[in-house]
Design brief:
This protein has 160 residues and is of the alpha+beta class. The protein is built from 5 helices and 5 strands.
Length: 160
């Protein structure tokens, strides 16, 4: 297959532009915030293609986008995931920047300081300006798991 016919090729070009070209659409939310690509991927599409497929598999459908698990992290092995456009719209809002050790860098996970709460980690997402509360949890990981479970269920319902 010619690389320009590979569905990942356009995504790779767009990712490079968002990360490295200040005049590119979306640069301020990616490269402008210090988001970079895994160094070997920047100049080697074949390496990018092989790494993505070995880590998260082939592009599930044309409706899927390559996203970062930790929105403050780079495009790199261990921090990439396929998400549908619907899932991306759920997680588009940025979490607050961590200000203390009890803040989370994970999308949709927040630390609540309310003294009357035994469970301080909150999971919530936003879709079309509508808040979707997923609950309060004892640990940050439980809240992350709740967000991921919601997104996976949403993805499964969109594929049927």
């Amino acid at each position: 297959m010619n690389r320009t016919q590979n569905p990942l090729y356009r995504r790779w070009i767009s990712m490079k532009n968002r990360c490295y070209k200040p005049e590119a659409r979306g640069y301020k939310n990616f490269g402008g915030r210090g988001i970079k690509m895994h160094e070997p991927w920047v100049s080697d599409f074949d390496q990018f293609d092989n790494d993505v497929k070995s880590e998260i598999g082939d592009l599930p459908s044309p409706k899927h986008q390559l996203t970062r698990i930790n929105i403050n992290g780079n495009y790199e092995p261990g921090n990439i995931k396929w998400r549908t456009v619907a899932e991306v719209s759920l997680v588009r809002n940025k979490p607050p920047k961590p200000k203390e050790k009890h803040s989370s860098e994970h999308l949709g996970v927040y630390y609540s300081k309310q003294a009357n709460r035994k469970k301080h980690w909150q999971a919530r997402l936003t879709r079309n300006l509508k808040d979707i509360p997923l609950g309060y949890f004892d640990t940050e990981q439980e809240a992350i798991d709740a967000v991921n479970a919601y997104l996976e269920a949403e993805s499964a319902s969109n594929q049927t």
